[in-house]
Design brief:
The complex is a heterodimer of chains A (348) and B (80). Chain A has 348 residues and is an all-alpha fold. Helix content of chain A is 73%, strand content 0%. In chain B, α1 packs across α3. A 4-stranded mixed β-sheet of chain B has the order 2-1-3-4. The chains are: A mainly alpha (348), B alpha+beta (80).
């Protein structure tokens, strides 16, 4: 294939030296961030320590570069991993799997398979046409957007690894559970009829044949593209978050979004479904809400509803799914997210 | 003449690839025709499950990503 020839002439040692230098620069930048942010806020801008404005500015100056650094590193590594996978390969891996194991595998592959919701339709058809059960296909389609690298990095950066791990675990559980339920309901009749008549032979899978140069080049491109796309959301999100951090009194939200307000979880999910935002914009705000008394379960349920059930994706999927199946899909996933929200509120 | 097809559902990335392909052609000065294909049936006939895809003279050369401009140039010169 033509693709393999592309980066072959490039000198590999140079790439590795550049990567090593980048890693060192990254580490230095990450280490000096906090003192630097405080120095700028309190010395250069001469803001008063402990004042509302000072707190907000220091928070902003520290968090924005921290998140962007974490994001760059994470996208680089996940893209390297993803060059070993492709929708074609995932399709092969899922072919002939039983329900249950198939759902678990599909949800996990949802994390590592490169996927953009704009190709949800051809991917859906490719999966279903090759005999992958509907429920298994849905496990993949739920896990892929919910557990995305941007969400995981932001949760890690703002809440620590425990919350990030919990988020991944619950995203997987929701995808597996909802996929199994949808599979059990035998909803094949609600897939648009034309889907079953299409001819489809998958293009050959190239993911195993790439050179390391090519994988690294792709990863660097992905960092550029994704950070280029989300940095503004991160800045705005953290600015709003910083404002809340500095100005809204602690526990102001405890009554409406705290654990005691049982109705807050379903309401958060209902509000979250029609909202469309990427994780980058929503998480900094969510983190500020939590700090002010909103409970973690409620906030995470809200976030999952925003990234996992988005209106644009439903409109795209409407081309292959009848409205009944879209409704069942939203219903099952919505209920799963609500249950997860309650579970978090219960255990955290 | 080269026939380049960009397969995609009309998302932002697909338009980006289309623009990059046109740029590469202009730069190389080759005679080629770039077409954005949004028809699902056609996309699937090439076996493409992840868009944007690039097809040069009926050969799928890239799927599921926006290649760097230099890579698109190489894909085109390889097909000449």
């Amino acid at each position: 294939m033509a693709i393999n020839k592309i980066s072959a002439p490039r000198a590999t040692p140079r790439v590795y030296i550049a990567l090593a230098l980048a890693a060192i620069a990254w580490w230095i930048a990450y280490t000096i961030l906090q003192p630097l942010a405080e120095f700028v806020a309190y010395n250069i801008l001469a803001l008063e320590r402990g004042s509302h404005l000072g707190e907000a500015v220091a928070f902003f100056l520290y968090d924005v570069p921290k998140i962007l650094l974490l994001l760059s590193a994470m996208i680089f590594f996940i893209t390297i991993i993803r060059t070993f996978f492709s929708p074609e390969r995932t399709r092969q891996l899922l072919g002939g799997r039983r329900v249950g194991i198939g759902n678990v595998l599909a949800a996990m592959l949802g994390i590592v398979t490169p996927f953009c919701s704009c190709s949800a339709v051809p991917l859906f058809i490719g999966f279903v046409e090759s005999g992958i059960p509907l429920g298994v296909t849905f496990s993949f389609l739920i896990a892929a957007p919910v557990i995305n690298e941007v969400a995981v990095v932001l949760l890690f950066g703002l809440f620590g690894w425990r919350v990030a791990a919990l988020y991944i675990a619950s995203g997987l559980t929701i995808a597996i559970f909802a996929g199994i339920v949808i599979g059990r309901l035998n909803l094949e009749r609600y897939v648009e009829d034309f889907v079953w008549q299409l001819q489809f032979t998958a293009a050959p899978d190239e993911s195993g044949k790439l050179t390391w140069d090519e994988r690294i080049t792709r990863a660097i491109n992905a960092v550029r593209q994704i950070v280029g796309k989300v940095w503004l959301y991160v800045v705005i999100g953290i600015a709003v978050g910083a404002g809340i951090h500095g100005y809204v009194p602690t526990d102001a939200l405890a009554e409406v979004m705290g654990k005691s307000a049982w109705w807050s979880v379903p309401i958060a999910v209902l509000i979250g479904i029609p909202l469309y935002s990427n994780a980058a914009g929503i998480i900094p705000i969510v983190s500020a809400l939590i700090e002010k008394g909103a409970s973690l379960g409620t906030a995470l349920a809200f976030m999952m509803a925003v990234v996992g059930l988005s209106l644009p994706e439903m409109i795209i999927l409407r081309r292959v799914l009848k409205p009944q199946l879209i409704a069942i899909f939203i219903g099952v996933v919505g209920i799963a997210i609500i249950l997860t929200g309650y579970l978090f509120n219960l255990v955290m | 003449m080269l026939k380049i097809k960009v397969l995609g559902s009309g998302c932002a990335n697909c338009h980006k690839v289309e623009a990059l392909a046109k740029q590469a052609i202009a730069q190389l000065g080759v005679e080629a025709q770039v077409e954005l294909v949004t028809d699902l049936q056609t996309i699937l006939r090439y076996g493409v499950m992840s868009t944007p895809g690039i097809v040069i003279n009926d050969q799928v050369v890239s799927t599921g990503r926006v290649p760097a401009p230099s890579q698109i140039t190489t894909m085109i010169t390889n097909a000449l």
